[in-house]
Amino acid sequence: MDYVDRIVKVARNNSYILSSLNTAVKNKVLLSMAKAIRENKSFIMRENKKDISKAEHKKMKKSFIDRLALSDKRIEEMARCLEDIANLTDPVGEVISGWRRPNGLFINKVRVPLGVILIIYEARPNVTSDCVGLCFKSGNVCILRGGSSSIDSNLAIAKVLKKAASKEGLGFEPFFVVEHMDYSVIDKLLKKKDYIDLVIPRGGEKLIRSVTEKSLIPVIKHYKGVCHIFVDEYADIQKAVKICVNAKVQRPSVCNAVETIIVHKRIARKFLLLLKKEFDRYTVKIKGDKETRKILPSVSLAKTTDWYTEYLDLIVSIRIVSDIEEAIQHINYYGSHHTESIITENINHATKFVNEVDSACCFVNISTRFSDGNQFGLGAEIGISTDKLHARGPMGLKDLTTYKYIVYGNGQIRE
Amino acid sequence: MDYVDRIVKVARNNSYILSSLNTAVKNKVLLSMAKAIRENKSFIMRENKKDISKAEHKKMKKSFIDRLALSDKRIEEMARCLEDIANLTDPVGEVISGWRRPNGLFINKVRVPLGVILIIYEARPNVTSDCVGLCFKSGNVCILRGGSSSIDSNLAIAKVLKKAASKEGLGFEPFFVVEHMDYSVIDKLLKKKDYIDLVIPRGGEKLIRSVTEKSLIPVIKHYKGVCHIFVDEYADIQKAVKICVNAKVQRPSVCNAVETIIVHKRIARKFLLLLKKEFDRYTVKIKGDKETRKILPSVSLAKTTDWYTEYLDLIVSIRIVSDIEEAIQHINYYGSHHTESIITENINHATKFVNEVDSACCFVNISTRFSDGNQFGLGAEIGISTDKLHARGPMGLKDLTTYKYIVYGNGQIRE
Description:
- Chain A contains 16 helices and 16 strands.
- Chain A has helices at residues 3-18, 23-39, 41-57, 62-68, 72-87, 126-137, 151-167, 183-189, 205-214, 237-249, 265-281, 290-295, 304-308, 324-334, 347-356, 373-376; strands spanning 95-100, 106-113, 116-120, 141-145, 175-177, 198-201, 227-231, 258-264, 285-288, 300-301, 315-321, 339-343, 361-366, 383-385, 393-395, 401-412.
- In chain A, helix 2 (23-39) crosses helix 7.
- At the A-B interface, helix 10, helix 15, strand 13 and strand 16 of A face helix 10, helix 15, strand 13 and strand 16 of B.
């Protein structure tokens, strides 16, 4: 049998066993996995060194090697994450709702695992153990296809985790790491809609678009995060400056950093002069529209493409608008429907904004950087969705489940 | 601008207006639509006659013309369905969950409309008004592409409904009926992923497969309903016979009718002799496996293809198994993951069955015919899903929504 056929068939079969494993057993395995990660640190580091050498040999960028390299701290974080997942509530078996019908039927809508989840990701090897933990706890078998540059690290981590599971008496493989790195394997996997229930691509926009176009399996993803802050005419200016600086500067390389700041014309001069001073301290480059440049003549002119751009860098675009409607229209038209925040002391404007902005996360008076599973209190996050079907926004354990209707009766038939 | 481009752009725009319409206004419009359907009965009937003439001219089957033809009763049902929808709880605005974080963030997960829904369906013209009602109440603009054989009826119904909406002061088109019947229009619509949020195909398996393969937009569907009843060794035989007869005979042409009956060998002889007698009364044709034919020598032999077949007719396949495991394996392997029922008085077998069968609806001691939104008490049904993402099983109003996270703070930033 072909490599892909074999993996998906075993994965589907194992998903039926995993789906009925009880929580205590799953938690024991997760804690044992965490322990094994710590105990096998030197083995994992040794294998990781191979990946690093290859990357250095290929003259990869320093930032790339940084993401790839495991350290004592990163390995400890991997172990800690598995322990955190063990502590999260098991979503499987939750009765989402239930009721009795007039004819006596007792209907239960019960949360169950999705089954088999394919995760396609790039360099960071810690994603391997995080995804194994989240999928295992939610009762799903995962098939992991990490970047080829981290294959030795990923296989090492997988080996350690599988051994720990087997030591706890788990008689089946609870996850799979794709070992063959040629792209044809991904293409084949993406057609296996009868064996794989969900695909989650994590990484750059190009990777995600390619997966989405090829897949016959449902995909949950976000292409990019073009997040906005709208500084309303009724904004508290100190709050607005503090929030905009945090949203741009605290970690500019992530999807929930702000990319465009929209400012009401009545507050623009006072606010922008203060903001510019702060942004200069952090060497943030500003691109402004014509009105912005009347106030800040030194900044470069924003082009139409800027409104669509996720800079992932210390760059921000700024636009001045005449009213809140114009701001909402800009966000719905140019944005990526990820996360937007309004800064205002006016309750009606706040309500209008959160109701009319068509994004996964609509915030009032906080930094866009809070768009995150951990920050929301959902626990470790499998990703953020800008899709509207199934899961939207930060995705926790529950988003890796579906439900079934279990209905009990006593001989009822339809009349 | 091209026909499809125009429709989808206006639809997306109108979806922003519709999404914030309040419930009282929506209900008023729905009641006014119901009234208009009754008042314009003769107009609708006249237009429907045109479709019927065309179908007769084309020598379509009687059953086809039956589905197409509107009667006083069917028009009254259309009006009543709109009134029923007006009476259902509005799903939009429900706070699904909400909590406060240690740093003071107040998180609300709030139900909102999906946006724009494309529904592709076949002959029945009443689907037009039912879908308009369900989508409108859930705050979604729908684009309806009905069968070409019912185009005059559909346009007449749409005209009546739009006029009623406009009379109630609705200043925008709340839905669209595709008037151009060439298939290239469907193909184009299925690529408009930035304007359409969900596609629901309703009809035969061929239509649904074609839509699913072409669509870049998420699709919710069921291909077919190969529903099973497992008559366990601990079944109450009287109950089992009554339920199997109801599930096969009461309405054999629908997706929740039973297609395969699986019988435990220990109860097989006694049960099958009784069942055969009942099925003979209703002229149900039986196809049995080898073991079945030892008990019922007159029935024909079931082939492997029979286990995959949705007969939609007075035909049933029967298999005898050695234990419950074999029954569950058969269902998960050959079934369509739609609806299955176990007949047993043994609580452990019931529990095992509902836990291990991988279907949208897992029943105990009732007819598979209960797999239906109305029977579940969800109100009118937009369809039944055998998908695992977003919605599974009978879909009500809530399944036509997504959610957004609305988060209130007071100047919080991330440290």
